[in-house]
Amino acid sequence: MHEHTHDHEHCHEHDHTHTHSPEHDKAVINRLNRAIGHLEAVRTMVEEGRDCSEVLIQIAAVRSAINNVGKFILKEHISHCVVDAVETGDQQCLSDLEDAINKFIK
């Protein structure tokens, strides 16, 4: 038997009040701001009547930025919450993760 400590709340509490380090939160916010910037550029391009192919390329950048935010959050979730869920046998957390992944990759 081993003992471990984490500085955040765990998935098995099912209250979805995770706490993350300020560095993690800042990284997520920076990535979100990047995605928002790309999306605002799409709106501006449409307002300016830019070429459709240029708009589509910018939309691809929005999609990529959003996917990168999701991957970053997923990696953090797996390395902390899911590891703890596996160690404690919390099947609900694992089921919740499966549902989230299925929605994320649609």
Shape descriptor: elongated
Order of helices and strands: HHH
Decide which structural class fits the backbone. mainly alpha
End-to-end CA span = 39 Å
Mean pLDDT: 83
Beta-strand segment tally: 0
How much is the radius of gyration in Å?
A: 18 Å
Largest sheet: none
Stretches where pLDDT is under 50 for at least 5 consecutive residues are 1-16
Strand content: under 5%
The tally of helices reads 3
The share of residues in helices is: over 70%
Write up what this structure looks like:
- The structure is a single chain.
- With 106 residues, this protein is an all-alpha fold.
- Helix content is 73%, strand content 0%.
- The chain has helices at residues 22-47, 52-88, 91-104.
- The radius of gyration is 18 Å and the shape is elongated.
- It starts with 21 loop residues before the first helix and ends with a helix.
- Mean pLDDT is 83; it is low at 1-16.
From the structure above, extract its key features.
73% helix, elongated, disordered N terminus
How is the topology of this model organized?
Blueprint: H1 22-47, H2 52-88, H3 91-104
In short:
By secondary structure, this protein is mainly alpha-helical. It contains three helices and no strands.
